[in-house]
Amino acid sequence: MKHRLFLWLLALLPVSAHAQLYVDGFDPPRIDPLFPLVAGTYQLPSNPMTNQLQWLIGELAAGETTSVAEVNAHFDSSWLAQNSVAATQAFIQSVRSAYPDARITDVIAVTPVSGTFVIDSPGSPPPSGFMVFSARYSGTQRITQFGVSTYGGSVQYPEDMTLSMSEAADKFATLSSAPALLVGRINSAGQCTTMQDRNANTPRATASIFKTWVLGGLGQSIVEGTLSSSEVLPMVASEIAPGGTINVEPLNTPFPVSDLAKLMMGISDNTATDLLHERVGRTRIDQIVTEYGVAQPDLLRPFLGISEQFHVFLSFNLTDALSYVNGTQPFKYQFLQDRIVPLGPNNGGPFFHTQLLTDGTWRASPYDICRAFAKLRRLPQGSEAFRTVDAAFGAAAAQPDVRAEWDRVWYKGGSLSSGAGFHVLTHAWMLENAGQDPYVVIALSNSPSGGIDPFFVQSITGRMLELLSLLP
Fold it and tell me: In this predicted model, what pLDDT tens digit does every residue of 219-236 receive, in sequence order?
């Protein structure tokens, strides 16, 4: 039987043998935007997705028409297999009519293969258009996804729009059976302080926020000189993980480490994660867990990749899976080497232990995640390591109306679900203005029985983000 299991987007005190990474009294004088706004136009990095996006935005000019030849030149065969040329022309025309001369008014996420944006005609009030857009990484680099839905101007439900921060925190705690929340700040000493705390020291399943420690290992390795952001890693069959967006790319497609980092954090790409997990190495990432000050590091160690964790969910009977989850550290490392690693990439399995989605996977507390933010933020300013981490963590903001309020937005989220809905739904933001201590919102929702409503969680976290943006 095949089961559906999803892990998606919608998040450094070195030991003596390692180089010092941090700056005491850290206070950056300025924060350069990842996507500068110049004369009303966002300056996006050149990559396969944005190159096609530039053409598409040009097609939305009032009075423009899109020819058959243009559709064939810009849309991938996978798109055209599902949508005729005529239907594609008609859809572009419908967007053009709804948003003539459309421009991007908010950048939500940008990665080398996909992006999400708010678009609108110049000067138009809401509703606006919420656009999702994707392109192939290699080959013709043509468009694989293009959709526009209506965005009314807020992700919040009306009943949440007047809540105080304390009331919002209380409501968040009702949205799952095992919540954990931290709304706080990272002070000038790199310590996490509390504004609102609901079980913030209690470990919960993190879903893809675990990739934060992979990114930490990557940043540390760049500082130590054992890895470069420009190093090219080929797509290899042994690291193709379930749910990876880039799985459609041919074997041996070359990916610079910097692009893989953006894919891992910006769209939570699982294959990008396993490629980086393999390159950085489990040993180094295990050390990072300790160096970052995780209170119960053995909940994250041995630090599994995506396919390895999915084998725990899918490939062993429950008795064997629980023996791994509840085993001693020596037992777990031996089980990993003897029984998990030899299985290679995960392509499904005969079992699906839903109880392990919350209790048999990567777990950490909101304070652990906040400390990871703090350590990554204190990588040497202006260094290759910091630029790589900043671009990866800044690739997504998760919601509209966040990026414009802050000089720096870092985000990572994730989820684990079954036919019963979401068992794990997680969000973690760091929000910073130059010369001020950054804020964090780390909201972990766990429910062994499933059923977490992502829109309720989005509404409450949206209210929290809004309230922080209003503080002096």
Answer: 999 999 999 999 999 999
Distance CA 280, CA 265 (A): 16
By CB atoms closer than 10 A (0-12, 13-18, 19+), residue 352 is middle
Neighbouring CB atoms inside 10 A of 51's CB total 12
pLDDT tens digit sequence for 306-342: 999 999 999 999 999 999 999 999 999 999 999 999 9
Distances (CA, A) of 76 to 141, 146, 205: 8, 11, 37
The HSE-up count of residue 154 (CA atoms within 13 Å, CB side) is 15
Average pLDDT over residues 412-433: 98
Averaged pLDDT, 148-152: 97
Would you say 164 and 464 are in contact if contact means Cβ atoms under 8 Å apart?
Answer: no
CA atoms within 13 A on the CB side of 312: 25
Q: How many CB atoms within 10 Å of residue 425?
A: 27
Structure tokens that stand for 9 in this block:
């987007």
**Is 178 in a helix, a strand, or coil?**
strand
Structure tokens at 460: 């409450």
- According to DSSP, residue 339 is labeled I
In eight-state DSSP terms, residue 396 is B
CB-CB contact of 226 with 212 (8 Å): no
As given in the structure block, the two tokens for residue 462 are: 């949206």
**Does an H or E element contain 334, and which?**
helix 329-335
472 contacts: CB under 8 Å, gap ≥ 6: none
Query: Is the Cα torsion angle 305, 306, 309, 310 positive or negative in sign?
Result: negative
Residues in the chain: 472
Specify the pTM. Answer: 0.93
Contact partners, residue 469, CB within 8 Å, separation at least 6: 405, 406, 431
* DSSP letter assigned to residue 226: S
Token representation of residue 300: 């994250």
